[in-house]
């Protein structure tokens, strides 16, 4: 019995070398004479402990001494101490795992996102199960919609038999306590490749919101726990809140893409969904990467309109925006570690230029340090598996 307890304990602390008898490699083991006297053959070598204004002095043992009281390195002296004082820890419950889905009955690789696939609904459920087993219980769905279903008004976005409602019902039936988030925007359903309805090169704000309200209610009816408007129209959070509430969905949360930038980092995502803009760009609705204060305007509006959580997107290049939102609002803040960021890490790791596990866990921790409570990342399942193997980082 005791034996089994020990086994279980050591597997909980998996990776902790404290239990191992193997001596760690500590480099040089020869004692260093800390007086540092007589070590230089050349007499002319500068002596930092000499002269009237010496940089260093000597302690009671004649060892060289920087008379420094505050030594921050004391709090870093070993893994246990670092663990005790660590400010930010990433856990699988912080993650939202984005999943691409399509109508086919097989998976398709996404060349610009190695390791990510467009899932058949059956494989999506398998992927959800694998992530769920390592503690990732929140998902967001992104559909690739066949071209023949795309229109300028994006009517397929609120087809109750569309792919997202069907996927939602499948996941919620199999994993009732999972959280499934759904993206609210027209781009996967738009024959114009834009997040809103188009007229003469313009994206129509209010007409788009009318459609988004139908989309959000349709998703709520199919079991969505959290609707996530990513369209960046003005006033959409308030309208969606009212639409949900008036239909009885007061419990459905809104995770607003508050500060979503017109970013070049979305390229691989648009490959995955085949949703590149049909003309122009998204700069009349998504934010200018040069601007920070604008994010505060969006945050104040979203909070006033009833958003439950605010998102910054992309993540890594916008850590300053995450921090500014965190300081400006008591609402939880999410960071979207987007497709282009994922692709950059994957590409460098494939070349052997970066260590994938180390760089990913550092990146995710940095999101938390910047102020993110929630992290949307294509690495969610993988990172949770690493955490399970190695213990918390
Ligand atoms: C579109 C949407 C985009 C992403 C999430 N929702 C792309 C875009 O605005 O063109 C990008 C996510 C990523 O790059 O990982 N509503």
Automatic annotation (TrEMBL):
Gene3D superfamilies cross-referenced by the UniProt entry: Aldolase class I
Alphabetized UniProt keyword annotations: Heme biosynthesis, Lyase, Porphyrin biosynthesis, Signal
Catalytic activity line of the entry: 2 5-aminolevulinate = porphobilinogen + 2 H2O + H(+)
Group of enzyme by EC: lyase
One Pfam family cited in the UniProt record for this chain: ALAD
EC number(s) stated in the UniProt entry for this protein: 4.2.1.24
GO-annotated molecular function: porphobilinogen synthase activity; zinc ion binding
GO BP annotation list: heme biosynthetic process
Keyword Cell cycle: no
InterPro entries: ALAD (IPR001731), ALAD_AS (IPR030656), Aldolase_TIM (IPR013785)
Signal peptide: 1-18
Family: Belongs to the ALAD family.
Function: Catalyzes an early step in the biosynthesis of tetrapyrroles. Binds two molecules of 5-aminolevulinate per subunit, each at a distinct site, and catalyzes their condensation to form porphobilinogen.
Assembly and interaction partners: Homooctamer.
Protein name: Delta-aminolevulinic acid dehydratase
């Amino acid at each position: 019995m005791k034996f089994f307890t020990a086994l279980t304990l050591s597997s909980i602390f998996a990776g902790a070398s404290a239990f191992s008898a193997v001596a760690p490699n500590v480099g040089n083991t020869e004692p260093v004479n800390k007086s540092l006297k007589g070590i230089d053959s050349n007499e002319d070598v500068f002596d930092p402990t000499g002269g009237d204004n010496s940089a260093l002095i000597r302690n009671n043992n004649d060892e060289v001494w920087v008379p420094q009281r505050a030594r921050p390195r004391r709090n870093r002296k070993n893994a246990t101490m670092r663990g005790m004082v660590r400010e930010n820890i990433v856990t699988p419950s912080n993650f939202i795992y984005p999943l691409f889905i399509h109508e086919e009955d097989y998976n398709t690789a996404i060349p610009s996102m190695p390791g990510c696939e467009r899932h058949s609904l059956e494989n999506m459920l398998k992927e959800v199960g694998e992530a769920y087993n390592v503690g990732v219980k929140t998902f967001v769905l992104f559909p690739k919609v066949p071209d023949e279903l795309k229109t300028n008004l994006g009517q397929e976005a609120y087809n109750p038999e569309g792919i997202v409602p069907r996927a939602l019902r499948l996941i919620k039936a199999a994993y009732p306590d999972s959280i499934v988030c759904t993206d609210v925007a027209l781009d996967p359903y738009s024959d114009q490749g834009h997040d809103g309805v188009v007229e003469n090169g313009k994206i129509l704000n209010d007409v788009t919101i009318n459609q988004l309200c139908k989309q959000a209610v349709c998703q709520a009816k199919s079991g969505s726990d959290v609707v996530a408007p990513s369209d960046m129209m003005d006033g959409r959070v308030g309208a969606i809140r009212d639409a949900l509430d008036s239909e009885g969905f007061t419990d459905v949360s809104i995770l607003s893409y508050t500060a979503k930038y017109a970013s070049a980092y979305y390229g691989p995502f648009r490959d995955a969904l085949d949703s590149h803009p049909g003309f122009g760009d998204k700069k009349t609705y998504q934010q200018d990467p040069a601007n920070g204060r604008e994010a505060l305007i969006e945050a104040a509006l979203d909070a006033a309109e009833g958003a439950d959580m605010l998102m910054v997107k992309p993540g890594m290049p916008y850590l300053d925006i995450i921090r500014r939102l965190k300081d400006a609002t008591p609402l939880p803040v999410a960071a979207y570690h987007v497709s282009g960021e994922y692709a950059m890490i994957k590409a460098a790791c494939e070349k052997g230029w970066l260590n994938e596990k180390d760089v990913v866990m550092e990146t995710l921790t940095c999101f938390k340090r910047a102020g993110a409570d929630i992290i949307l990342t294509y690495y969610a399942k993988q990172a949770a598996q690493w955490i399970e193997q190695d213990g918390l980082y």
